[in-house]
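Lay summary

Proteins are chains of building blocks that fold into shapes. Our project writes down both the chain and a compact code for its shape. Here are two examples, one after the other.
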Amino acid sequence: MKKKNRFLSFLLLSVLVCALPLVGASAAAKTDDDDHLKNGEFIPTGVHITPSAAKGSLFQPLNPDLASDPAFTAGQAVTTTISPDGKTLLILTSGFNIQFPGAANHNTAETNEYVFVYDISGPRPLKTQVLQVPNAFDGLAFNPNGKEFYVSGGPDDNVHVFVNRGSRWTEDTKSPIVLGNGKAVFGISAAAGGIAVTADGKRLVVANYEHDSITVVDIANRAKLATLSLKPGNGVPGGEYPFWVAITGNNTAFVTSERDREVVVVDISTARPVVTGRIPLKGQPIRLILNRNQTRLFVAEGSSDTVAVISTTSHKVLEEISTTAPKDVFENSRGYKGSSPNSLALSPDEQTLYVTNAGANDVAVIELGGGSNAAEDEHSQKSKLVGLIPTGWYPNSVSVSADGNMLYVVNGKSNAGPNPAACVDKASIQPGGNQNACTAANQYVWQLTKAGFLTLPVPHGEDLEELTNQVARNNRYHRDSAQDGGDGLMAALRNKVQHVIYIVKENRTYDQILGDLDKGNGDPSINVYPRAITPNQHALADKFVDLDNFYDSGEVSGDGWNWSTSARAADTIEKTEPVNYADRGLTYDYEGANRNINVGYATLAERQAALPTTPSDPNLLPGTADVSAPDSPDGEAGTGYLWDSALRAGKSLRNYGFFIDLAHYGSAVGPFKIPLLTDPFASGTQVSFATKEALRPVTDIYFRGYDNAFPDFYRVKEWEREFDKFESDGNLPNLEFVRVMHDHTGAFGDPGHFRVNTPELQTADNDYAVGLIVEKISKSPRYKDNTLIFVLEDDSQDGPDHVDAHRSILFVAGANVKQGAVISKKYTTVSVISTIVDVLGIDHLGLNDADAEPMADIFTSKTQKWTFNSIVPEILKSSTLPLPISARKIKPAGDLLAARHSKPLRDASWWEEKTKGFDFSVEDKIDAAAYNRILWQGIMGDFVPYPTARSGQDLRHNRKQLLAQYRKNLQARLSLMAAQNSGGGK
């Protein structure tokens, strides 16, 4: 075909495919949560936010005024501070803020973090300047002279110095100050975190988060004076993951140790600093501040939802103040955690303490008993939490104006909205056009979650009371069980259901899998893995409930796996994850390993027995403390997971692949790399090492963990081996965790020679694995009627969705699940946890799931007959998997559409070439946004541009017409491709 005709065909088909959402579309979907004025804005954690609720408030985005992208707004605002004269407010971002190259108007020099400078001398903050630094990690402090301020460079291992030049701030010519901490074990780079300045303004103390040390800096000479390790030595935990610093006078630094739950006291008065004390705390210390006289230290304890008040002289903890809610608003008699306090500010008169509850999206207002200088024995005047102020999603920092009348709060996150969102890419339909031009729209989930800046007058009296009630409504603190209408049904289910199979997969959106479903709010034009590739998941949605308004609570795997197992994510995760995912530095400490050490083992001997390559250093993270683990309702450190609650309730459980040490897979070399054994049980070869002490005794050591080179088919065969034994013995555990992860896709070299080595094949393998598990339960005489199966994704970052980047798939199967229903009520990962807890009759894990409404709408009290027959995806028959004999013969394709998905569009060599340099050995260690583009090109072909202009339309109506038109257009496209002999190949 001539070039002109090829272009016309291309243009025609692009218009046909991209226009599809207009067919049968109505206005934006109306749901039960759309009453914005009453309920606020729904977020994927299952609660609502009302950042503009306070009278006189101003809530605004943070626009750094980029020349290359004037509309760009920043995400992950983390720290605020006010100048000594009270006239200037600084806001620091620290996280993902990356502008991807690939577009003509992109400037790679503007892929940075930002310091926003505001004049707050008037009634409203006035942005006067935006400064840029390559990297940052929360640290921000003024010199007492007010003439310069400092920004920690995070993984760059430095500190930036900005000086005042009249009306402008500029970076000093001798900045940044190099700290020179280098790399630690496993090549982990240092990370400059919290910083503080001595009273005389001569020295700076920096917390080195990844190296468990502090560095003292000579400010005048812009030079390092000394570095001190905070570890006690002798194999004793202490001083690890230091994050924040406060200094009394010129001599004593107080440093929070997040992993070891202590404040380390350091004498910095001499040339060689020395640790002089350690103050143990019940919660994980995040940030701390001093009162004006420096007699009191206030510490936000993120894991225990408290603020510790400490004497700076005796080092005694004088008081622990709850930050969740006033007792008359929410009793919380069970002590559920999840408010996650993470920053503090004192009023000028020091009678009031303001604390950001990051996990509850509010600021706690605390009246200090006897003021901030009360005598140590003055116990009659206890501090009191008197109110709450609603904020944006995940507030990270609060500051108070010099006159005490205004509060300044920044939050790190926002709803993502559709991805991609109205990215009109004209270049993609031009001959030879740049297929990646839409990258300028920044469509990755971390680029879509934006920061917010809230300014409000300090509320008092009835205003504060009403705001407190608003926070209670937002977080369902006033949840009335009778109104929910689900408690009676859930109680009935507890009598019927004795077993739950909880299956967690990886990273897919609703539209990617179910966009072509005959019902529900799916967009077929961005459906990447249609029914032909995922027939079992489609069958589950058909047979039981299609949940087309379900949202993953996490953004990515790092927090997604914590939301999926504990219904919350620690502040350490929220602060480090965006930095890590931006490939700026820090380590993936989110599934039981800290700095690549399996802390599920307490001693060096145990660790080396499990992995002989573990360094022989007894001071390398000794003990089983996990910096990212949640606490139980009773305050037991690190035991706030779903399995912990089940064990405390005396329930039996079994773990297949959750929280497994990956050091033996992927990039491992030598004799300690575990081969890809299809039946490790037969040879007695352990292939899984749990990273949680509680999981070790209940983990199937023959079930392989996260490894893209290994098919889910064989994982399920191992699960089936044990299930058959449970069936025979009648002792199926009450709760099973099953991880089938191949829909994450990757590792196309296929060293196991399974020929499951393209994304379509891997996703089909994952789909079939799910089908096999459901079929096994459905055919079990003992367990089909008393077992519920939940199947979800840990997150939905790896693909587009026309409603929201968090929207994903959820399948529920069992005898008491409704059949053939579409349920469009908004549910989340937290809803699933709450439902599992209620069904099993165990204790809730924390505030989020305890206050969430269980998913009663999907159930019926009547026990129904049900069965499920797994379906072998046609495309999977080209693999070497030992599929059933009846499924081995590939059926002849009835038309081009059927033939399209009978084999991969590209072969493994194409995928290897396109993903050269990608590391698939660990979740999300790749450039996910770039990979999403490659997935689209590799699966959908060159004739369909990356999807554009998705705006949250409701596609539930006229569904038959929409799908018929889409299939007709797609059939036409395939016919042209076939005619041009360009529909496959390498």
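And here is the second example, written the same way.
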Amino acid sequence: MTWLERFSNLFRGEALGRALDEELDFHLEARIGENIRAGMSPQEAERDARRRFGNRTLAKERSREMDIVAGLETVGQDVRYALRSLRRSPGFTATAVLALALGVGANTAVFTVVNGVLLRPLPFPEAQRLTLISYRPTRGPFHYQPSMADAHYVAFRRQNQAYERTATFAGETMTLTGAGDPVRLQAAAVTPDFFPTLRVNASLGRTFLADEDQKGSDQVALLSDTLWRSRFGADANVLGKTIVVDGARRKVVGVMPPGFAFGLGSPRDAGLWTPLNAAPDGHNSFSRPVVGRLKPGVTPQQAKAELDAWVRGLPAERGRDGMLAETLPLKDLLVGDIRSSLLIFAGAVAFVLLIACANVANLLLMRAASRQQEIGVRGALGASRWRLIRQLLTESLLVSLAGGTAGLALAALGVRLLLRMAPAGKIPRLPEIHIDGWVLAFTFGVVALTGIAFGLAPAFQATRRSLRAGLTAGGRTNTARGEGLRGALVVLEIAMALVLLTGAGLMLKSFVRMRSVNPGFRAENVLTMTVDLPDSVYRTPNELKAFHALTLDKLASLPGVVAVGAVNWMPFAGALVTGDFQIEGRPRSSHGWADKPGVSPGYFRAVGIPLLKGRYFTERDSASAPGVVIVSQSVGQRLWPGEDPIGKRISMEDHPKPEDWLTIVGVVDDIRQSDLKLKPSATVYQPYTQVPRAGFLSHMSFLVRTAANPQSLAPAFRAVLKEVDRDQPVESVAAMEDVVGAAVAEPRFQGRLLAVFAALALALSVIGIYGVQSYSVAERTHEIGIRMALGAPQNAVLRMVLRRTLGLAAAGVALGTAGALAVTGVIGKFLFQVTPTDPATFAAVAAVLAASAVLAALLPARRAAKVDPMITLRCQ
């Protein structure tokens, strides 16, 4: 036999078995020969040799374990035996695989989103060196995103030593015409250093040159790959062509690579980029995000120290005590507030997985208990305890692998459902959310850990009994220890389910309360249309006002319209103009902050804001008439307590001239302008016809109150706009109820998703309780039969089973309540008018769990109560 044949024989189990048999026969025969030479008869010599030699099968097993290849063969034997064993128990296998598939699938789906949004690095070279450069006020009326004022950005860029490049940018919406129908698209204005800072080059053409942010040289644009393909047919000759953006002609100089859509500082994709000139201007207070690329060898801490020193040298601004420096990873601008929600969801699905594992561990405990005779026989034949544990672990790992594979299929569906449930635009980096190698590694890592974790306890429990206990009476021995472990797992399941149910209950209660908040106006039967007019076409306030007046007239003539109005910053639509004002006859100072919308005379009737005193605006309140305003109730009560504010005068200017004073002609009810969680806004309304600056008139929302379904008027809305100016696309047409509903979309999403996880946890817990009680009843059938033979009534047996269930439920509720009190504080910032320790929610959840536990145990209890003692005792 050649060496190659010998080597190949190592991989053939039969050849290796024959070799071991030959080796053992050789040693046995040698021992027999020694005994015969010592004077024993052949029969005595063989008997003594076999006694001294011991168990032949065990010796072969030990020999095999010393061989690596043979060790792999024994693993294969374990796998084949485990597959046969699982195939003989299809009910157990299906239940365990389904439980794990739900747990692993939910975890994989959430991890896929977490990986894409939070963990995956930004697709830029050395993205870890990109940081946001920002400051924020120590106190002030505004919520600041990471940003800098233009003048401060230019000053910092000149003297900074930590960054090799810096750039600022701003998200915008722009109108593209001349490439098909006019379209309003997301875009970004960026300084020329923006793309070199990110180290991204155009796939076609070039990016902006250093001087293309200067006036006269800034009439250029870059296209996204998506816009290039959808609007220009992927024409390579697009370079040099002229497009019209917001009414201004721009030359296309480049097309960005596929997948690049950064520039808004939001989840929305940018389709077009234009140059931004960030020159200092004392007349604006624009603040924009600033990104910088750290120099090699410079740490974020060193950059933060340099920024700290620079910020401390800034002069204090009115209304602020000072500024605090901030340097953040660039990813934080994209992730925003979704980070907290995703981490909460990740924690919730981890609980679901733990409940699934506890469920499967209980199933394995019950299955192992029913196999005591089989385990005893295998032990009697020479199998060591470790060999038996390895076999049982192999079975649990196979179950886990099957559950993980099925969970991956569920995760693919779960990711789509999760993204569909999420509010539009709330989850960033959508193209990067997909199942990849990291997700697969996470899934199968979870599979391996859970397979070992939920398989170890049953394996040790099943193999701790003596051979005699396993072989006598079919393996039936004292099961108190196993029953206690199964009960402990049920308690753990109930406790974790209670934590999830409590969190979901708090979120849903918070959502219901938020949804019931009165915004201060009537949103039903109101349709809205928002338009942004380019300053390159509508240059003056009079041109803008003429557009708005013509549009209002045409909308009022539509059939079914009850009232029509316009407002430059519609409630719950995002941005608001907010600031302070001066009061006639009082010292110049800040009298508080107020929203300052410009509205048409019919706005209050169209949106349903009630008048409390005075009058609404009329057509007589034109640009040539004396200036007037309407204030909300809170403004009047705060500034003139106990007095009538009608006739009082205020000014929006810091140093008002005589013509800048505005007379209060009406008081209306307070409304919530931006958030249902916040108190009603202090608001000062001004007729849009008297707003002097074009910048406050280019963005306008038109609202009509209809007698029927407002959505039926949407085509007519678009037709009106096309009739007034065919080159202006509609930014959005939406029912006001949908606009208000979007304000609660995120808490609705959070509540729904937590409710799904909680329902899953509750279902798994109920299945676990049912399984444990069913097995307990079957295990104690003999005892129940004796009790009934001695006169115990059916109700007593029923109470005995339910009493144990209630005991487990009570222990689980107590443990879960303690856990919920410790955990629910995490979601406190998401709650509205509900405390994290809300007693009603805790009580309701405890009642639901207790009732579910009783219902789950009712069927096994009824089965126990119907045991026939004669049949039971005869079978035993």
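What can we say about the second shape? The radius of gyration is 38 Å.
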